[in-house]
């Protein structure tokens, strides 16, 4: 029986971030957290292999405040979860995250297939999957939108800029999946209730052999991107749609925007 | 003295990164090595565009290009490059991240700018789906940074007198993946990047047949139709190569007209550099209006035909 792990990141919902003031600083006061959108596809892949082909399926995550995510993720299909929750992970980069996840996966042991989203919806560095593959000594198969299990490996279709590449391999692999691989479930009430009975295993950094977590990069600043736009409403003051359309086209012509 | 590498599976991006690499080594008199998926001729071109050494990494037939990683790890341990710029194609990003893990070094994905003074590097990149820009400092080398096409410009004039050496890298003896098939992308695909006027179709369209309203406007304006992700990936009303956003197309037209698009940051990422943004939406609080130069609040079934008519009058005059 194959053992499959899906990794996910508990991220801030970027829709709740407010950009404020002249310095365009970011306000996180009203922020909510969510399972990164792209990782929901990864979890769904694992859940589907678990339900249809009887694979063992676990979720894995790490962060400074991930315990709030456990019920949510377990309602999406994994049989259990293993995670590291440590204040030292308040600020991470792809290097640190992949080392912690690799540590957890090694601790679980004999994992045949690791599934990640193509990137996270906050940083979108798209590194954790391939970094994990390198750290675990697994094959790295990225940007996959079709995935099948074979007797001793996988067959995957990668969607690349110039076309599709179909690959086969034997042995363990880390696969990153694209959003169009499936439609992640919205957990049913039954699935939400069942999640409460599932097991979660908390691991300490020391238990996975990581004592120091040196960031490879220092963040000097994060500020809202400047988007200087005019914000002019064309049809204010009871103008008809026809008049507004003509006014807009004249305006674009006057701006020199029409070829 | 510093030693810079560029790695790319597309030659145009390689030439662009070479100009940047030459700029970054200029004060130190260092060397630039290009790892290129290309021909002997393109290797000579790379030298004219700034490379001192070219190592060809040809696309393997039976396995993935990213399987060169162990060879690059060995090369890096010998040559000790300070900065490695990698073309940020999907293959490039995979290879860059694997290489970074093996070398235990930082990697900055899709950097917009990079400065380097010989001891530290400052880079900028977008985060939160384009909502914010992050400034990063790296003091640890090698440093890997991936770069999308058209971020930097290649030299306007080649220096054909430049001399350099060319060699070919061999794949490792043992590879993990077998490529069983490659299906090139169909050719009829649209080139949104060169269209001066683009109409974006969003979820405000209630049915597939309404897309023709956008097509008629695009035609009247001499432009193309694009869309938001759900229109292509969930509803399949338009082909996938027409969707705009962080994981789709990034365009810079003269005018982008967002029709029935709410304005999620992931979509706005793809139109950030449009010269003018126009939005049409019936919801007067649609976030798209905050990033628009001009907007019309109204039903797109009325507004688009009116715009088409107005455009035809102007073009006809």
Describe what is shown at a glance.
The complex is a heterodimer of chains A (259) and B (317). Chain A is α/β, with parallel strands linked by helices.
Descriptive keywords:
A: Rossmann fold; nine-stranded mixed beta sheet; B: 317 residues; alpha/beta; Rossmann fold; seven-stranded parallel beta sheet; five-stranded parallel beta sheet; 8 helices; elongated
Describe the structure.
The complex is a heterodimer of chains A (about 260) and B (about 325). Chain A has helices at about 35-55, 70-75, 95-110, 130-135, 190-195, 240-255, and strands at about 5, 10, 20, 25, 35, 55-65, 80-85, 115, 140-150, 155-160, 165-170, 175, 200-205, 220-225, 230-235. The mean pLDDT of chain A is about 95. Helices cover about 25% and strands about 30% of the residues of chain A. Chain A has a 9-stranded mixed beta sheet with strand order 11-10-9-12-8-1-6-7-13, with helices on both faces. A two-stranded antiparallel sheet of chain A has the order 2-5. Chain A has 2 domains: about 5-210, 3-Layer(aba) Sandwich (Rossmann fold); about 230-260. Chain A has about 260 residues and is of the alpha/beta class. Helices cover about 25% and strands about 25% of the residues of chain B. Chain B is elongated. Chain B folds into 2 domains: about 5-170, HUPs (Rossmann fold, 3-Layer(aba) Sandwich); about 190-315, TPP-binding domain (Rossmann fold), CATH 3.40.50.1220. The mean pLDDT of chain B is about 95. Chains A and B meet through helix 3, helix 4, strand 9, strand 10 and strand 11 of A and helix 4, strand 5, strand 7, strand 8 and strand 11 of B.
Quickly name the level 1 CATH class of the largest domain in chain A.
Alpha Beta
Question: How are strands sequenced across the largest beta sheet of chain B?
Answer: 5-9-4-1-2-3-10
CATH topology of the largest domain in chain A: Rossmann fold
The SSE string of chain B, one letter per element, is: EHEHEHEHEEEEEEEEHEHEHEEH
Number of strands of chain A: 15
CATH class of the largest domain in chain B: Alpha Beta
Choose one word for the global shape of chain B: elongated
User: How helical, in percent, are the residues of chain A?
Assistant: 25-40%
Rg of chain B from C-alpha positions?
23 Å
């Amino acid at each position: 029986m194959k053992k499959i792990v899906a990794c996910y990141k508990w991220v801030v919902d970027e829709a709740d971030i407010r950009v404020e003031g002249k310095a365009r600083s970011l306000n996180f006061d009203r922020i909510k957290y969510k399972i990164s959108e792209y990782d929901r596809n990864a979890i769904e892949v694992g859940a589907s292999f678990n339900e249809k082909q009887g694979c063992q399926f676990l979720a894995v995550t790490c962060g400074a405040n991930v315990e709030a995510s456990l019920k949510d993720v377990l309602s999406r299909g994994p049989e259990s979860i293993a995670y590291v929750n440590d204040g030292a992970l308040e600020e991470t980069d792809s290097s640190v995250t992949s080392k912690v996840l690799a540590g957890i996966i090694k601790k679980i042991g004999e994992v045949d297939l690791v599934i990640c989203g193509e990137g996270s919806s906050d940083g979108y560095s798209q590194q954790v999957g391939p970094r994990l593959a390198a750290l675990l000594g697994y094959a790295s198969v990225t940007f996959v939108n079709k995935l099948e299990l074979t007797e001793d490996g996988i067959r995957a279709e990668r969607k690349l800029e110039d076309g599709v590449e179909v690959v086969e391999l034997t042995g363990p692999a880390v696969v990153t999946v694209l959003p169009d691989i499936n439609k992640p479930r919205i957990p049913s009430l039954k699935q939400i209730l069942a999640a409460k009975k599932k097991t979660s295993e908390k691991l300490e950094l020391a238990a996975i052999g990581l004592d120091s977590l040196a960031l490879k990069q220092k963040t000097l600043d994060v500020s809202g991107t400047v988007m200087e736009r005019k914000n002019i409403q064309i049809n204010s003051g009871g103008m008809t749609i026809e008049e507004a359309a003509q006014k807009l086209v004249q305006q674009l012509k006057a701006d020199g925007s029409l070829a | 003295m510093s030693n810079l590498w560029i790695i790319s599976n597309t030659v145009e991006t390689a030439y662009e990164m070479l100009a940047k690499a030459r700029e970054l080594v200029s004060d130190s008199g260092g060397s630039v090595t290009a790892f290129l998926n290309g021909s002997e001729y393109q290797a000579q071109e790379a030298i004219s565009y700034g490379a001192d050494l070219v190592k060809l990494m040809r696309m393997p037939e039976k396995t993935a290009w990213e399987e060169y990683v162990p060879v690059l790890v060995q090369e890096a341990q010998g040559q000790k490059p300070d900065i490695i710029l990698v073309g940020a194609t999907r293959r490039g990003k995979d290879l860059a991240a694997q290489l970074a893990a093996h070398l235990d070094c930082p990697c900055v994905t899709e950097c917009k700018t990079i400065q380097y003074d010989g001891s530290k590097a400052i880079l900028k990149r977008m985060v939160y789906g384009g909502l914010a820009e992050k400034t990063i400092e790296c003091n640890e080398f090698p440093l890997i940074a991936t770069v999308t096409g058209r971020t930097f410009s290649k030299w306007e004039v080649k220096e054909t007198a430049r001399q350099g050496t060319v060699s070919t890298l061999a794949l490792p003896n043992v590879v993990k993946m077998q490529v069983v098939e490659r299906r090139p992308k169909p050719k009829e695909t649209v080139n949104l990047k060169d269209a001066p006027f683009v109409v974006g179709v969003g979820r405000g369209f209630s049915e597939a047949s309404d897309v023709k309203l956008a097509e008629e406007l695009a035609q009247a304006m001499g432009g193309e139709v694009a869309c938001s992700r759900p229109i292509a990936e969930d509803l399949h009303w338009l082909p996938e190569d027409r969707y705009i956003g962080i994981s789709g197309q990034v365009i810079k037209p003269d005018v982008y007209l967002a029709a029935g698009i709410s304005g999620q940051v992931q979509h706005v990422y793809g139109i950030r550099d449009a010269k003018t943004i126009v939005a049409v939406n019936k919801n007067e609080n649609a976030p798209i209006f905050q990033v628009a130069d001009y907007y019309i609040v109204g039903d797109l079934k009325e507004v688009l035909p009116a715009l088409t008519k107005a455009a035809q009058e102007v073009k006809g005059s």
